[in-house]
Amino acid sequence: MADTATLEINGVKHEFPVVTGTENEVAIDISKLRATTKGVITLDSGYKNTGACESAITFLDGEKGILRYRGYSIEELAEKADFLEVAYLLIFGELPTNEQLEKFHSDIKKHSFVDDDVKKILDAFPKAAHPMGVLASLTSALTSFNPSCVNVDSVEEMYNAIVRILGKFPILVAWTMRKKNGLPLYYGDDSLGYVENILKMMFKQPNQDKYIQNPILVNALDKLLILHADHEQNCSTSTVRIVGSSHAGLFASLSAGISALWGPLHGGANQAVLEMLEAIKADGGDTAKYMEKAKDKNDPFRLMGFGHRVYKNFDPRAKIIKKAADDVLSDLGIEDPILDIAKGLEKQALEDKYFVDRKLYPNVDFYSGIIYRGMGIPTDMFTVMFALGRLPGWIAQWREMRMRKEPIGRPRQLYIGETERKFVPVEKR
Ligand code: ACO
What we know:
The structure is a single chain. It contains 18 helices and six strands. It starts with a strand and ends in a 26-residue tail after the last helix. The protein has helices at 33-37, 74-80, 83-92, 98-110, 118-124, 131-145, 155-180, 194-203, 215-228, 235-244, 250-262, 269-282, 287-295, 316-331, 337-351, 353-357, 365-375, 382-403; strands at residues 4-9, 12-20, 26-28, 58-61, 66-69, 72-73. The radius of gyration is 23 Å and the shape is globular. A hairpin with a 2-residue loop joins strand 5 (66-69) and strand 6 (72-73). A three-stranded antiparallel beta sheet has the order 1-2-3. Strands 4-5-6 form a three-stranded antiparallel beta sheet. Helix content is 52%, strand content 7%. The longest helix has 26 residues, at 155-180. The structure holds acetyl coenzyme *A.
């Protein structure tokens, strides 16, 4: 591969370095483009061809269906690691030793509370508020309770900020659900593992002395969180990096990421998938009819949970989740007709020319909602669960961006509006 790329504009040639990543991905470094061409920019709506940063956290190859965190395959991590280990790996770059993991967990537990006044903020939301709006607001509100700025050059301060948010965030998640379900707020139990504690915080009933852990649920949630933990420069992660690049604090950057995740084209797809499957069921289960709607360019309907910006072969997370959905429902003895509809849709889509030609495959969200539903989590909480899983990835990406001292994110534009014109007073318009 040549180490420079040549661009010719108006007969003048400009050379740009070609850089190669550790997995042999190739990029043209255009950081001097404007300077050398006197103002020419690139135009790339949706950043489909634009690398926004160099990163050592997650590698994915959408054509081959590969996803690795810090070099470890998602398949191996989902099978052998637990969520806290994966969080440590993503954030700090290496799998923790036993000692490091124990310290990490114990430091997180020291921060597993929020100021009691947060309850007042939560109280002010109507019960019908969407949990993602509540979560984004509460996360942002944490800034007011922890106002000091993190000195990112201090290893200790950075570490403390990380364990603090890893301790507090699950409480916000659990409280968002408890508020929705009309349950009194509960601070959890620090004798439990990270994921076990999350389940207890979400599900413990006020009249229960003891919450009995179901290992099937613990295992399923652990796996789901691992599968969602990072996905390189997606919409919400790029949002976290770009907000953080202005040196806004960690909580503010995370809150922005939560809002970005909410949309149905991104993390909100898991809720949209379940609502779609429900609608198909209510409409008699005619999957062929919905396949036709998805293909009809005059119909805004899209097959939710299908297609992905980068996976053009298969989404490796979807494979793992499909099996987990089967396992969890059969372990819990649940027969969910929605699972059959999902499988029917998948089968038809994989054989349909429209979907095959466009390389549209089920993504991570196609089956995750079915598992969450089996676990007793309300549909509009699904994206909140995604945010819980994505938290370590957002933290890792924010930390990397700050430690690399990346400049403020500020894209350019190609202006297509009016050229200069004279102001006309209101009485003459
Ligand atoms: N159903 C029907 N057609 C689809 C779908 C779908 N789910 N997804 C893409 N297409 C079609 C488009 O209409 C387009 O067709 P055309 O070439 O004839 O115009 C073609 O496939 C390419 O689609 P784009 O929208 O250009 O692809 P893009 O990379 O911009 O979008 C996205 C990716 C947003 C994920 C899209 O596939 C989609 O909307 N999927 C449904 C929502 C979803 O599941 N989102 C979750 C993604 S995973 C995540 O964020 C965690």
